[in-house]
Amino acid sequence: MVETTKNTQIYTTWGRKTAKPVKPAVAGKMVSKAKRPLLVIGSEIVGDEKLTDRIVAIAKKGVPVAATGHSITAFNGKDIGAKYINVHSLAHFLGDEKWGGLDGKGPYDTIVFLGHKKYYLDQVLSGLKNFTDLKTLTLERHFMQNATLSFGNIKPEVQIEALDEFIENL
Amino acid sequence: MVETTKNTQIYTTWGRKTAKPVKPAVAGKMVSKAKRPLLVIGSEIVGDEKLTDRIVAIAKKGVPVAATGHSITAFNGKDIGAKYINVHSLAHFLGDEKWGGLDGKGPYDTIVFLGHKKYYLDQVLSGLKNFTDLKTLTLERHFMQNATLSFGNIKPEVQIEALDEFIENL
Amino acid sequence: MSDTPTGQISIDDLENVQITIGKIVGAIEKKAEEEGIDLGPTPKPGISGLRDWDYKILSRYQPVYTPVCDQCCYCTFGKCDLTGNKEGACGINMEAHQARETLLRVITGTAAHSAHGRHILHHLIDKYGRDKPIDVGPSNLIAPNTQAVTGIKPETLGDLEEVMDYVEEQVNQLLATIHAGQEGAAIDFESKILHGGMLDHVGMEVSDLAQMSCLGMPKAETDTPLVEIGMGCIDASKPVLLVIGHNVSGVTYIMDYIHEHGLEDKIELGGLCCTAIDMTRYQVENGGEPRAKVIGTLAKELKMIRSGVPDVIVVDEQCVRADVLDEAQKLSIPVITTNEKIMYGLKNRSNDSAADIIEDLSSGKEPGALILDFDTLGEVAPELTMKMAKIRDEKGIKALPSDEELQELSAKCVQCGACELDCPANLPIMSAMTAGAASDFTQFEYLHDLCVGCGRCDQACPKDLPVLNMIEQASRKLIGEERGLVRAGRGQISDPEIREEGVNLVLGTTPGIIAMVGCSNYPGGTKDLYKVADEMLKRNYIVVMSGCSAMDLGMYKNDDGETLYEKYPAKFLAGNLINVGSCVSNSHITGTAIKVAAIFAQRNVSGNYEEIADYITNRIGAVGVAWGAYSQKAIAIGSGCNRLGIPVIVGPHGSKYRRALIGKPYDEEAWKVYDARDGSEMPIPASPEFLLTTAESIEELFPMLAKNCIRPSDNSMGRMIKLTHYMELSQKYLGHMPEDWYKFVRTETDLPLAKREELLKILEKDHGWEIDWKRKKILSGPTMKADVSAQPTNVKRLCKGEC
Amino acid sequence: MSDTPTGQISIDDLENVQITIGKIVGAIEKKAEEEGIDLGPTPKPGISGLRDWDYKILSRYQPVYTPVCDQCCYCTFGKCDLTGNKEGACGINMEAHQARETLLRVITGTAAHSAHGRHILHHLIDKYGRDKPIDVGPSNLIAPNTQAVTGIKPETLGDLEEVMDYVEEQVNQLLATIHAGQEGAAIDFESKILHGGMLDHVGMEVSDLAQMSCLGMPKAETDTPLVEIGMGCIDASKPVLLVIGHNVSGVTYIMDYIHEHGLEDKIELGGLCCTAIDMTRYQVENGGEPRAKVIGTLAKELKMIRSGVPDVIVVDEQCVRADVLDEAQKLSIPVITTNEKIMYGLKNRSNDSAADIIEDLSSGKEPGALILDFDTLGEVAPELTMKMAKIRDEKGIKALPSDEELQELSAKCVQCGACELDCPANLPIMSAMTAGAASDFTQFEYLHDLCVGCGRCDQACPKDLPVLNMIEQASRKLIGEERGLVRAGRGQISDPEIREEGVNLVLGTTPGIIAMVGCSNYPGGTKDLYKVADEMLKRNYIVVMSGCSAMDLGMYKNDDGETLYEKYPAKFLAGNLINVGSCVSNSHITGTAIKVAAIFAQRNVSGNYEEIADYITNRIGAVGVAWGAYSQKAIAIGSGCNRLGIPVIVGPHGSKYRRALIGKPYDEEAWKVYDARDGSEMPIPASPEFLLTTAESIEELFPMLAKNCIRPSDNSMGRMIKLTHYMELSQKYLGHMPEDWYKFVRTETDLPLAKREELLKILEKDHGWEIDWKRKKILSGPTMKADVSAQPTNVKRLCKGEC
């Protein structure tokens, strides 16, 4: 079992509500139990084949993918149905019960993040934390304190291992 | 061994530097090793005989006592040499290498707090944390995040037990 | 409304018009010259204008920073963690950032007061014209703060506009320095803080001068009426109109309407916060009857609304809870907003007919309305109140839980402690719940006076228990008994009063002025104010009240059933109790100190701030106490006092202002001044020891008050009196002689007569002083000499032979 | 200096004096009437004056809050934890508090600009007199923001004072609402934010109008000179005088001294930030030669100082690192502060002789000086620079580590990661250290352009490694090559230019204006700016630059060795690249939009803000990009654009402004306007989709820019052009056709000709539209009609038959 919960060092705090460190298997099971999960991918994955492969694997297990920034360019020809959306808009729409989602099938309940700039995602999560009831899970290499559940600060190779374990548990 | 390190719930954060939860025995040993400890007592102890007894016991083990607010009224006739000082002034002087201390014997290195209003002590400790190199230890019933070392949130009876253990280890 | 032509105007059209071209550079100087006024060196000082003075006081009183947050989040480089005085991305360190944070809070307060002033000035000029004379009573120095700072001697409402222009320009300059990449040195942020504080007193003064002049408010009267105060004095059987805020301008129209339509007996008009105070000043000069009741401070807002008693709520600006509309809506109470600063998202009905508005609000179609037209407001508020009273009565609006419900609710508590953690005072709510579950509600009742009524407990409770309502229900008997009296605000201290009392203040024979100001975030309940005032009044201090403190003081009675306002006279004399008025009336407290320098000591006042401040610093034993200070206005007021050398003590919550100014009594170099007679240096007592600090409890406060009234100019009688109080209060409340009492002794005549021998013995034995026992004289020991003709000053240029 | 008498003045003394009594109520209206100006409904609006307009745009664009902190620490009741939209002790909830926080940041920016404006206005009036005419070039509408907002048509410097008075009064009113217990509704804080933003553009305009009129700056010139830019263009062998800040007033005296004393070749004068820009505008109108070099933005400040090259540093105000004095002192560089906003605790030497100051600073007796007297400053700065150059040369001041030291330092890194956590961009410093330990410094070099030069890495390092210096040393070759050209700021767009280009903008045949403004907190290095501008210029957009962005754009060259300023012409025409000037010149960008409404469309401008904003909202395809926005000024500028309906995109760091305004394209009700011809409702394209939002990368930015230039007024040619760019940019940078392209199609003629058939097929197949394939016409499908004569408006009262 990959250890992803130990180093939760932060460089600044938002307040007292802080993410729970999570292990990949638990995270995977949580997502597989979610009614309407959404995987939100950021531009930092562009050019990272290892990460891209894992994302494709997650998508193939039935998790719809929102591609923010220019991350969509990593999925051309991968046939995972990823849809481009601006992440700031996405976060706004996620809080709106009337939004039909990227596919018109209604609102999401569990939002999984991967491949974002840390400082940018911190803010996106801050909005979701304060103004929605959504569960958020981050699979980043940094501990994202504004998420509901987050990996700790881990090394790139550990992240890949953790993602594999996450995928196994989906 | 009294458990004083578990509940470190806070109601608000100051930043990322947060007190280390400490057990009474460790705290006691630390103070006994200090070159120039100072015990700073707040007015909340007035009328609390159990706490007052413990403070007297600590003082009798050779730790000088600064009595802030009107806590000095609890020590009349107790012959522990407690000296009144305003805690805001005290914190200012503590950061001044030229200050001779309450007794003229020079600066202190380890400051122990007990019997303060939580919100007030939070601020005093915030100043010491940011602008001095002093070690601060709190023996309060609340987890004081701005201290170097602090008990967690504990019940009154646990605090008394913990103080006894602390005194044993002085 | 003024109707002077503008643009390129023909001189012929302008007969008898007085044209003031204040903006022209050098204009103030020229005007002063023409009027024979001796203008000081710093009329309308910019940020750097009084920096030298600031540096002088800051070298004695060092900033002590206690950050509320270790991070800075101003710009998008951040957040930056500055812990341990690290530098952020812009290069600012923790120290400078904390000074900047304090500056921001101070100018926020200054803006609140001066924006209020500008609003009411616009309004009153619209109504009374620019030429309406300023009238403050029997004084020539009618605007001491304004004149000392700007050099302008205002005579009409119109003259005040230039003063406001100056304040606004300077506030804008200061706000600019909050921007990333501006000031880098904490010390210069400190100077800016003092500048902002000084401006606050000018802004407040303009506000109160304008309203006093136009609204029939008492003008330095000593026998203003006593006004009913307290939640218990509201007759809930009548339609109740509740007003909340700080700016009385719109409310006067409501009062006029009620008066003109003979509705006084039909409507219960009650106010919260300073609007309430100013309502009780409205048209009561020369014996007028107060037309409204005071309910209390900010701490009563939520409690009053939650009681369900008000039928309509009108809010204006400042210290109005942000959730008034939400809370009122739950109890079918329409809310009317009347000021651009607070609009609550309500529809602007300013141009609609009163009938339409009343219809929409009484039918519940709209939860409230924004009405900026005061004529409409004047009609809508009372008429709607009468209509709503019936409607709400018929609806059977239920506000608080019954006792059974209280017990049931208590039993639901899971003792998680969230409420206590979030409670600003960490009050023991959990044990009240435990007792409540066993139908013992006394512990809830105990919380009532300690509770500041903020409602965070409700927000924190994971079980959604209405904690505040539970406290209120358990305390309904107490609340019903909350009926006191407060003296209507009197405005300024007049010039003749200064002439009479000035000498006693400067020589110390009146032991000091204790100014109790500010808000209701008390560490230990409201009654502490009563205890402090009573003790100091008994000891012959002049106690000056204002704003929320003035209200809360009136809530308590002595064994004879008297409030302190009844017990003590209200002149500007030792042992008197004065209420100057509302928040903006705080300017009269500093104004009084300036007047002592200007009138009693005949110092030039116009544009001569430094000399005035220097005089006050060394000679006037005044201490400000803002025991429940919560707001940015309070720290602005305090900073304005500080620049004049007046020390201020705030309660323990005040540590969250994140910065104090505290001296080091052990650093002898810091406690020296020049003797203006010859420029020689002379040691002075270490008092005031601080310009801004906190105290933990009133027991600690008492000796601090007495000690910090000591000044270099005290004569022996004065010093003896002050020292006596210091020692007695220390004995009484801390149970011991203060360690440093002897440091204030210059000569045996400084010692209390009754204890002189005993004290001389201590001086000999413990401190090694030489005593001539035959003559009972001190031969050596003191570091200071008693010399009444010495002229202590911190400013070298004011010494003979300088300049 | 003006010397008009004041006080009670005799009319006889005042022959030929023009008296303006602007303050009198109704004055503006009267003046306008006399001058035949048609005054709109809201001259000098108060906080509520444009609230209805704000509510209209806010109903389409909702505030999206992303708190930087979950707590509020304004008052002493707190801190309050507001997580989950809980209420604090004053009753404010998270939403309203975040809006308040944004308001605070906006007015801080507004204050920075307008306080700068007030300072320079005072200074220039002192020097040139109140009657100095405002001169901006060949325009009648010389102050579009000022006139639209205040109704005042300023003609002289003196006229600008009343404008500043208004701005300051309003900023003070807004700052007051930051106080605890003021506004409770997020929506009304939002309206206040827009008010603050609007004021910012007035304050900026006043600043730039004043300096353009007096300092010989270009006045709407299209061929302003190209100026050297970059750290590499500084000749370190000469004495180097470095100026930093935003307010050129003091620096002009230095430039004059250098000029008058023929020191141009002896001293290297370089500037950082907007002072640098304004130095290059000084006296260059009509072909004057630039007298200074531009070094770069805030991001270069620490790097430039740490290089050890400057011999003297002069700072004025804004965006000046707070640690300039500390850093300079380490390298024996004296620092001169010249503005009250930044004084660094230095001694005030304003009244001392130049010789004395030079002696004290060159001897190291004082680390610097505060000099508020510009004549003294003008002499001291250059003379001291020449003296210090020798002294520092003799001392052999060493700034950066050698390569050996760099390797040794790298080897000391313990890979703890503290630097990366604190780095605002989380740059990969650890791996650079690892490589550096093996004497491979390429990774440090790689960091150079990505690094914003904030120095937090140094602060964070537990081993005290000088990380920034290590990067700089490794990048010295790159830095040496940093030599580019920037076009000197041209000031406004003139009325004739508007007449020529207005129609193309409104009909969309010029695809849009891309205004690239703001600071240097880029997410991916400075070159991104170049890429964006080049791409959009190639596509015939008008690209307008200002401030730091204008500088950074000039740092890069194409394969032909040309900067974009050389490659593209500088007229106000499609495909042109314009630099308006410094930070305060941003007002000319909004001014341009106002001018299109006023001059091209002949809408009344005076006091007619809502109609002007409505016009711009529906007709002018302009998008602001503040890619590296870091400051409160940037968000103020953005908010001012927003009130005019101009959308703004900030880089990802901009999410830390904590609030965006984003619409919901899927909410069809939100995308409707009235047709002013008959008041009927008509659907419009969901563009702009937002008023303020962030983008993650420039690849994402490109299609956003194109799409959000689409406006209801586009004719078919215009829509086709815009749609083409949207689809092409989406294809090019995101690799796909945008999903929503078809939503902007009203008729087949909106479709790009080359792809028309292919797109019609998609419309039929994927979207079920009916196509008449014979005529290649769309029969049904679009929700909008193309109707060039429609008059889209959001304001009902502007429709025929209303009012």
Automatic annotation (TrEMBL), chains A, B:
Keywords in alphabetical order: Methanogenesis
Protein's UniProt keywords contain RNA-binding: no
Transmembrane segments annotated in the record for this chain: none
Pfam families reported in the protein's UniProt record: CO_dh
HAMAP family for the chain: CdhB
Described purpose of this protein according to its UniProt entry: Part of a complex that catalyzes the reversible cleavage of acetyl-CoA, allowing growth on acetate as sole source of carbon and energy. The alpha-epsilon subcomponent functions as a carbon monoxide dehydrogenase. The precise role of the epsilon subunit is unclear; it may have a stabilizing role within the alpha(2)epsilon(2) component and/or be involved in electron transfer to FAD during a potential FAD-mediated CO oxidation.
Family: Belongs to the CdhB family.
Assembly: Heterotetramer of two alpha and two epsilon subunits. The ACDS complex is made up of alpha, epsilon, beta, gamma and delta subunits with a probable stoichiometry of (alpha(2)epsilon(2))(4)-beta(8)-(gamma(1)delta(1))(8).
Name this protein carries in UniProt: Acetyl-CoA decarbonylase/synthase complex subunit epsilon
Designated gene of the protein: cdhB
UniProtKB/TrEMBL annotation, chains C, D:
Top EC class for this record: oxidoreductase
Pfam short name (any one): Prismane
Domain of life: Archaea
Residues annotated to bind [4Fe-4S] cluster 2: 72, 75, 80, 90
Residues that, per the record, bind CO: 113
Catalyzed reaction equations: CO + 2 oxidized [2Fe-2S]-[ferredoxin] + H2O = 2 reduced [2Fe-2S]-[ferredoxin] + CO2 + 2 H(+)
Pathway entry: One-carbon metabolism; methanogenesis from acetate
Binding site for [4Fe-4S] cluster 1: 69, 73
Entry keyword set: 4Fe-4S, Iron, Iron-sulfur, Metal-binding, Methanogenesis, Nickel, Oxidoreductase, Repeat
Binding site for [4Fe-4S] cluster 3: 413, 416, 419, 461
Domain-related comment: Cluster B is an all-cysteinyl-liganded 4Fe-4S cluster; cluster C is a mixed Ni-Fe-S cluster which is the active site of CO oxidation. Cluster D is also an all-cysteinyl-liganded 4Fe-4S cluster that bridges the two subunits of the CODH dimer. Contains two additional 4Fe-4S clusters, dubbed E and F, that probably transport electrons from ferredoxin to the B cluster.
Self-association and partners: Heterotetramer of two alpha and two epsilon subunits. The ACDS complex is made up of alpha, epsilon, beta, gamma and delta subunits with a probable stoichiometry of (alpha(2)epsilon(2))(4)-beta(8)-(gamma(1)delta(1))(8).
Descriptive protein name: Acetyl-CoA decarbonylase/synthase complex subunit alpha
Annotated organism of origin: Methanolobus zinderi
Primary gene name: cdhA
